[in-house]
């Protein structure tokens, strides 16, 4: 991080933010950032400008403060965008190593609510897969996946530690994923879930409720996933459909 004063037509706040973003990427999680006074003196900017930039980085969770100690680089946040991509593929795309620890893998009987989500009759045998998902061995999410046992015989015995479920479904059962719909809500971590995620009780988290279908429309999975709010953020891409202007002509 150079010590030259900021010059040029761009606002000093923008230049300082760029320098700090580069420093955050270079230092890595947990490293201490220079103090407000040091940054102000090094780059010839007002401390109020420095504080505003640091406040923005903290609000965006690129950094965090510890009272009386300073400002530190936060853990990198993982952008979640594609429900059909799968956790493992998504994590690998970001240069990290995905992993999983199986907490439960067994056949259960679907109650009315679960059967309705799978669009099957109550009492259906269902494979429950409950796992902790990790990125570079750091717990990121908990997931509870429910799949109809009749569609996936032997799935309750398949090896799933560190294995992509969607890859297994494709390679062993010939499943092609068609569509996925999901709802997302903000929740506070309960004690047990927080312990599994190495987080604090009450810490914010994202709860995803997902339904995945074959191209034919048949439901193959009903799942819940709980992601640490300090490590995940959502990316939503939308395209507005435009209607061609009426040219005044007939039909």
Features:
six-stranded antiparallel beta sheet, 10 strands, Chorismate lyase, 251 residues, alpha+beta, Arc Repressor Mutant, subunit A, single chain, two-stranded antiparallel sheet
Task: Give a brief rundown of this model.
With 251 residues, this protein is an alpha+beta fold. It is built from 7 helices and 10 strands. A 6-stranded antiparallel β-sheet has the order 4-5-6-9-8-7. A two-stranded antiparallel ribbon has the order 1-2.
Supply the CATH superfamily name of the largest domain: Chorismate lyase-like
Helical amount among residues, as a percent range? 25-40%
End-to-end separation in angstroms reads 65 Å
In percent, how much strand structure appears in the residues? 25-35%
**What are the secondary-structure elements, in order, as H or E?**
HHHEEEHEHEEHEHEEE
User: How many domain regions?
Assistant: 2
The CATH architecture term of the largest domain is 3-Layer(aba) Sandwich
> What gyration radius follows from the Cα positions, in whole Å?
24 Å
Strand order of the largest sheet: 4-5-6-9-8-7
CATH class wording of the largest domain: Alpha Beta
How many helices? 7
Please tell me the overall pLDDT.
84
The count of β-strands is 10
Structural class label:
alpha+beta
Shape estimate = elongated
CATH topology of the largest domain: Chorismate lyase
Task: Give an account of the 3D structure.
The structure is a single chain. This protein is 26% helix and 31% strand. It is of the alpha+beta class. It folds into two domains: 12-73, Arc Repressor Mutant, subunit A, CATH 1.10.10; 78-234, Chorismate lyase-like (Chorismate lyase). The protein has a six-stranded antiparallel sheet. Strands 1-2 form a two-stranded antiparallel ribbon. The longest helix is centred in the first third of the chain and has 16 residues, at 12-27. The model has no long low-confidence stretch (mean pLDDT 84).
């Amino acid at each position: 991080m150079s010590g030259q004063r900021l010059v040029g037509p761009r606002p000093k706040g923008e230049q300082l933010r760029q320098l700090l973003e580069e420093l955050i990427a270079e230092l890595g999680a947990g490293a201490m950032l220079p103090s407000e006074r040091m940054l102000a003196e090094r780059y010839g900017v007002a401390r109020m400008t420095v504080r505003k930039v640091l406040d923005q980085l903290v609000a965006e969770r690129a950094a965090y403060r510890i009272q009386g100690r300073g400002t530190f680089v936060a853990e990198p946040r993982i952008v979640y965008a594609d429900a059909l991509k799968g956790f493992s593929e998504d994590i690998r795309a970001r240069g990290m190593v995905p992993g999983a620890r199986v907490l439960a893998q067994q056949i259960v009987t679907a109650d009315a609510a679960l059967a309705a989500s799978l669009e099957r009759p109550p009492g259906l045998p269902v494979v429950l897969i409950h796992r902790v998902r990790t990125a570079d061995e750091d717990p990121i999410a908990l997931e509870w996946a429910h799949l109809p046992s009749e569609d996936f015989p032997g799935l309750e015995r398949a090896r799933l530690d560190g294995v992509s479920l969607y890859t297994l479904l494709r390679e062993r059962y010939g499943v092609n994923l068609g569509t996925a719909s999901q709802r997302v809500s903000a929740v506070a971590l309960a004690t047990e879930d927080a312990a599994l995620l190495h987080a604090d009780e009450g810490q914010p988290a994202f709860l995803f409720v997902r339904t995945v279908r074959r191209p034919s429309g048949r439901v193959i999975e009903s799942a819940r996933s709980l992601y640490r709010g300090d490590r995940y953020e959502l990316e939503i891409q939308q395209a507005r459909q435009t209607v061609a202007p009426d040219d005044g002509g007939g039909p």
